[in-house]
Amino acid sequence: MGVVASCALPLPVVKPLGIKLPDKACDCHFHIFDKPSVQVEGRSYTAPLAPLNDYRMLQKKLGLTRSVIVQPSVYGRDNRTTLGVKAGDPNMRAVVVVDAATAKEHLAELADAGAVGCRVNLLFASNVVHENLQELAHRIADFGWHIQILADLSNLENISEIVKALPVPVVFDHLGHIPAEKGVKSSAFQRCLKLLSEGDIWVKLSGAYRVTAQDSHSYTDVRPMVEALVSSNPERLVWGSDWPHPQIPVAMPDDTDLLRLFLEWVPEAEARQKILVDNPALLYNFD
């Protein structure tokens, strides 16, 4: 394998949020990069060391109680680190990576270990190939899991047909990864809004820096997207930090500032309660 560029380290979390979050606020998207999992060949980036202790400091500083660890692409189907982090923490859930050939017995083991969904990465390269989303969805349906998809919805014109054929909830990472420069009136974003308004998908309000066309950390071009999603259906949205922000196209953001942006873009207490607490409790089976 050729040399794969290493990602920058996250900034230390030193600034308090200064705003009290609702009780049981949940970070629905973070990664841990540490042993024992091994980064696969053919990956799109090389992850830096990002251990659990560092993430715990972020949680404490920001006032986050619950969390969802997501298996990153660089670990392929080696879920050992992800599940090791989840082990023994009743306030955490895990989203793992499997494929349509994964034995039911192994899926049961993953479920017992705290997995509540599986991630399909259609954006970054890895050694995991998903040729049949429908077959995978049927395989995990018996466990009450959801499918979490990382994809640019701009490239999936038949997304409505795909989603409606799946027998499990479907969650899209990072605002559907639709470039902000396309705008909320674009056909891709309107497809996303329609599916969301009808309750056919969930969307993570995360990774604004992945879709922005700006160099500034204010990501003002992303705000209309978030506001449109919240207006469409706040009961199918969750928020995630995306810590430690691997493979991003802009300068490393400050995590306190990222959460403050979310609170600025979603000022209503009722919507915040749904996105930070009620919706994660339902989707990830916390209660």
3D structure, described in words:
The chain is an alpha/beta fold and 287 residues long. It has a single domain, classed as TIM Barrel (Alpha-Beta Barrel). It contains ten helices and eight strands. Strands 1-2-3-4-5-6-7-8 form an eight-stranded parallel sheet. About 2% of the residues have low confidence.
Write a brief caption for the model:
The chain is of the alpha/beta class and 287 residues long. It is built from ten helices and eight strands.
- Structural category is alpha/beta
CATH class: Alpha Beta
Uncertain stretches = 125-131
Give the full name of the CATH homologous superfamily. Metal-dependent hydrolases
What is the number of beta strands? 8
Mean pLDDT: 93
Helicity level = 25-40%
Distance between the termini: 44 Å
Strand content: 5-15%
- Alpha plus pi helix count: 10
3D shape: globular
CATH fold name: TIM Barrel
Major sheet attributes: 8 strands, parallel
Please describe the topology of this protein.
Blueprint lengths: L25 E5 L21 H11 L3 E5 L9 H7 L5 E5 L7 H9 L2 E7 L11 H9 L4 E5 L8 H6 L5 E3 L14 H11 L4 E4 L2 H4 L11 H10 L4 E3 L15 H11 L3 H15 L4
Parallel strand pairs: 1-2, 2-3, 3-4, 4-5, 5-6, 6-7, 7-8
Helix pairs in contact: 6-8
Please tag this protein with its features.
alpha/beta; 8-stranded parallel β-sheet; TIM Barrel; 32% helix; 287 residues
